[in-house]
Structure prediction request, 128 residues.
Amino acid sequence: MKHIPLGARGSFSLLVQPEHLANRFKDAMLPAVFATPVMIMVMENAALNAIKAYLDPGESAVGTEVNVRHLAATPVGRVVTGEAEVTKVDGRRVEFRVRAAEGEKEIGAGSHSRAVIDTAKFERRLES
Prediction:
């Protein structure tokens, strides 16, 4: 792993499809709006994109903590963009400020942590 600078940024965008909606993803009684777990996935992908350039071959980073608020509803057909900024690096643990927006409207915000892993070692541990 190379040095990950504070302030490194990444983003990830997703066109909201029917399978991303709360009433399809979780419970049919829920409104047809963007599901919170999918918003978190967008934020996590933005965080990973913020540090990919600093990972060595064979490394990745897994999510270890999420603390976010879902602030506004988003219907199908809109584009949601997640943004992440590195706020702290402690060894292999990386912390981020994350947000999600639909256009100029912020729909989610919070923090997220990831741990840099050696993917081969990680997979071997899973096989045990």
In short: The chain has a mean pLDDT of 95. The first helix runs from residue 22 to 25. The two ends are 25 Å apart (CA to CA).
